[in-house]
């Protein structure tokens, strides 16, 4: 096989791979639109019953060492630019998924304090499932599960009645409320 034919074949193979990845990152049940919460968000294109597998959260499979390296790099970038987006999901003890790839539509799902979706790990894959019935046109949201540390850096604009004001894992809401109450209490002279 000539060098040129080999190159063309390789290009075609890569194109097929990209198309497959792109298709895997899409879902008929949702689409990307501008969001009132932040930047772009993902919206239901039809009524979605509770317990539906809505879209796959795809990304690059990375080991913990690489994951830590990327987390630090993202943290450093966030300090510099204020852009605190985190896309790394834990799969198991050895592996994580970095969803920061353009074909991962689900990376654009915003955080909500009253989420209608949840991310479930299935083997080495992650899927976004609906937690309740979602009406066509509703924005999808899940709990980012951010740690309470540096909560001030992540104000929440989800707009739900249950909003606690910051993007913090629901598991740490009690602690967050305590800290917010303390911050409000005037110090006596
Ligand atoms: C993974 S991105 C989600 C997509 C994002 N809206 C965009 O257009 O790129 C995560 C970032 O979106 C923003 N974000 C997501 N949910 C938010 C919320 N409830 N309130 C405020 N900002 C939010 C934060 O800046 C967060 O770091
Ligand atoms: Zn909120």
From TrEMBL:
Record has S-adenosyl-L-methionine as a keyword: yes
Keywords for the protein's UniProt record, in alphabetical order: Chromosome, Methyltransferase, S-adenosyl-L-methionine, Transferase
Domain called Post-SET: residue spans: 152-168
PROSITE patterns: POST_SET, SET
SUPFAM superfamilies (UniProt xref): SET domain
Main location: cytoplasm
Gene3D superfamilies hit by this protein: SET domain
Pfam families: SET
Subcellular compartments: Chromosome
Domain SET: residue ranges: 28-145
Entry keyword Ribosomal protein: no
Alphabetized PANTHER family for the sequence: SET DOMAIN PROTEINS (PTHR22884)
Protein name: SET domain-containing protein-lysine N-methyltransferase
Organism field: Haloferula helveola
């Amino acid at each position: 096989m000539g060098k040129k034919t080999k190159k063309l074949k390789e290009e075609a193979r890569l194109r097929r791979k990209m198309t497959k990845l792109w298709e895997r990152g899409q879902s008929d049940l949702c689409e990307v639109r501008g969001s009132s919460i932040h930047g772009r968000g993902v919206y239901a294109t039809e009524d979605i019953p509770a317990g539906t597998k809505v879209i796959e959260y795809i990304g690059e499979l990375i080991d913990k060492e690489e994951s830590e390296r990327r987390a630090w790099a993202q943290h450093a970038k966030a300090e510099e630019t204020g852009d605190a987006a985190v896309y790394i999901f834990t799969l198991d003890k050895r592996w994580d998924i970095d969803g920061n790839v353009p074909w991962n539509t689900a990376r654009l799902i915003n955080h909500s304090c009253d989420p209608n979706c949840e991310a479930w790990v299935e083997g080495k894959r992650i899927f976004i499932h609906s937690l309740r019935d979602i009406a066509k046109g509703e924005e999808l949201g899940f709990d980012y599960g951010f740690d309470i540390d540096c909560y001030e850096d992540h104000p929440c604009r989800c707009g739900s009645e249950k909003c606690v004001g910051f993007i913090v894992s629901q598991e740490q809401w009690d602690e967050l409320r305590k800290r917010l109450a303390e911050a409000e209490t005037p110090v006596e002279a």
